[in-house]
Amino acid sequence: QVQLVQSGAEVKKPGASMKVSCEASGYTFTAYYMHWVRQAPGQGLEWMGWINPNSGVTNYAQNFQGRVTMTRDTSIATAYMELSNLRSDDTAVYYCARGPPLSRVARGAFDIWGQGTMVTVSS
Amino acid sequence: EIVMTQSPATLSVSPGERATLSCRASQSVSSNLAWYQQKPGQAPRLLIYGTSTRATGIPARFSGSGSGTEFTLTISSLQSEDIAVYYCQQYNNWPPYTFGQGTRLEIK
C-alpha cells in the first residue's frame, strides 16, 4: 500500500540542526510532489515547503527561508528535510505529505501523510 | 498570503445529528480547498479535496460544498469515531499553502 515512513524522534539543543527522513513506498516516488508540514504542540498545521523528487527543485515557505533544506535520494525513494539553527519554538511534530502528481504544478491536496517525527529543542 | 478562518473553534454535536463546519478564505481560492481530519496522536487524513470530492475510503456522510471564499464541511450523521480536529486548507495561491486554525468536534 502507499505509505510514507518517517525517521524517529529527536532531541536537539538550540543552535543545532535536525534532519528528518521520509521513505516512500507503494507508488512512483519521482512522480509526486513531497511536502513538509509541521505542528507545534497543541497548535495547527504549518506548511514548510515542497520538493519535486524528480528534479530536486524546491519551494520553501518564507518563514523558513535560509534555515530549511529539502533534498531527496531517488535510489531509495526517500525525502529529507533539514532545519538548521534550531530554536525552542521549532519544537514540533514534523510531517511529510504527498502532494499532487508533478503534472498538476503543485496545485493539489496532500493525500498521504507520514506518521510524524517529534523534534524537541531544549537546552 | 491567504488567511483561512474556521468557525466555530469547538463544536458539540449529539450522535446521529448533523455537524456543519465552516471555513472562510481571505480571498478567492476557487475550488482549490481541502479538508483534513486529525485524531489525537495521529497524522492528518485527507477527507475532501477540490471542495467537494471525497478522498479514497471516506464515508459518504462526509460532504463538502462552497466556492470562492466560503466553504462548508458537513457530517450528516455524527458517529463517535468522527471526534477529531478538522482543518481546511487552500492550495490555490502558493506559496504558502495555508491551513485554518482548526475546529474541534466533540460529542454532546
Number of helices of chain B: 0
Average residue-wise pLDDT of chain B: 97
Strand element count of chain A: 11
How many beta strands in the DSSP annotation of chain B?
Answer: 11
Q: Largest interface here, residues on each chain?
A: A-B, 24 and 24 residues
Query: How would the global form of chain A be characterised?
Result: globular
Instruction: Please indicate the percent range of residues of chain A in DSSP E strands (runs of 2 or more).
Output: over 45%
Rg of chain B over CA atoms, rounded to whole Å, is 13 Å
* Structural class by SSE content of chain B: mainly beta
Summarize the structure.
Chain A is an all-beta fold. Helices cover 0% and strands 50% of the residues of chain A. In chain A, strand 7 and strand 8 form a beta hairpin.
Can you tell me about this structure?
The complex is a heterodimer of chains A (123) and B (108). Chain A is mostly beta strands. Helix content of chain A is 0%, strand content 50%. Chain A is built from no helices and eleven strands. In chain A, strands 2, 4, 5, 6, 9, 10 and 11 form a seven-stranded mixed beta sheet that branches. In chain A, strand 7 and strand 8 (78-83) form a beta hairpin. Chain A is globular and about 45 Å long. Chain B is mainly β. Chain B contains no helices and eleven strands. In chain B, strands 2, 4, 5, 6, 9, 10 and 11 form a seven-stranded mixed beta sheet that branches. Chain B has a four-stranded antiparallel beta sheet with strand order 1-3-8-7, with no helix packed on it. In chain B, a hairpin with a 7-residue loop joins strand 9 (84-90) and strand 10. At the A-B interface, strand 5 and strand 10 of A face strand 5 and strand 10 of B.
Summary tags:
heterodimer; A: 123 residues; mainly beta; 11 strands; 0% helix; globular; B: 108 residues; four-stranded antiparallel sheet; 50% strand
